[in-house]
Amino acid sequence: MSHDLTGGIVVNALGVLDNPNAVASASASAGLVQTGDQLTIDARTLADAHASGVTAINVTLGYTMGDFPPYEHTLRELDTWDAIIRTHHDDLTHIRTARDIAEAARQSKIGIIYGFQNAAAVEDRPERVATFAERGVGVIQLTYNQANQVGDGCMAPGNRGLTPLGHEVVERLNQHRVMVDLSHSGERTCLEAARASRQPVSINHTGCRALVDLPRNKTDEELRLVASQGGFVGIYFMPFLDASGHARAEDVVEHIAHAVNVCGEDHVGIGTDGTITAIDDLDAYRDRLAEQVARRRAAGASAAGERSDTFPFVVDLRGVDQFRELARLLERRGYSTARIEKILGRNFYTYAKAVWGS
Questions:
Q1: Could you tell me if residue 1 is inside a domain?
Q2: Is residue 95 part of a domain?
Q3: Which regions form coiled coils (predicted)?
Q4: Choosing a second label site near 132 at 20 to 30 A (CA), which of 4, 234, 316, 336?
């Protein structure tokens, strides 16, 4: 098959739009969750995104971790991203519906999906889901690694299920057609939320625990349940894909292949959890890594498998050719053009139609 992605739909179900080489950028800081006012969306960022062939990216905004008032911080982040898209309107467009994804591809723009990696900003006010939906938030992940008011993250020792408030939040997300994302959730929270949801749910960025037994990876039971209800599973480009922490492109392919075997080819895609623009100076980046890993641990936000001697990305699957290289590797695996197109973006697009509408 041709690896020219022009005209196709490529969706990164969790990614970062940023130039990590800029001093002020948060993504220069070893896997810290991104915030809009710490991003550098410059000419290189935009040129690299266009060159990669990506159609849409689910970007993390709002409160995820740290000493911020969750609701107020999230509203500021929404304002920040609205301003970013206005400033770069020739290159970027806000995605609210599945049709917007197709339109972004037609116009050769980069679609920006507003997504949260923590429902903490809801606090004890489930009616806030309506506010977020009105602002164009398309994805809300229930928990980050730690516990919150709706359930347990994958690192919470209790492995509680969905709380009563969590059930109400899932109901509101369904009502307002916002994706219920179960990445980072604990196993019981994931299973119970998937069963409680009246709409298909997603695990936008994960790996397969059957291959590497780490909490950030999902069990076959979780993967199978999400897929059986018409949901979506995105495989990340993260160190958790290999027990050594030094994940390679071949590990990404193995986890995709396992997910396809468990979920079926119509329910698997990608959520890289990283930038398109590659870090230029890996030696300098490595020098900062220990400090940033320690900071996440001190905040109680890190996951098992985060270490100072491993990069929080896949070294040989980064930069502007990452999606084309993945397509090449999947083709070498024997996957058909149609299956590769599903994995690169068509499956997320189909899932978006089911939740957001066309």
A1: no
A2: yes
A3: none
A4: 234
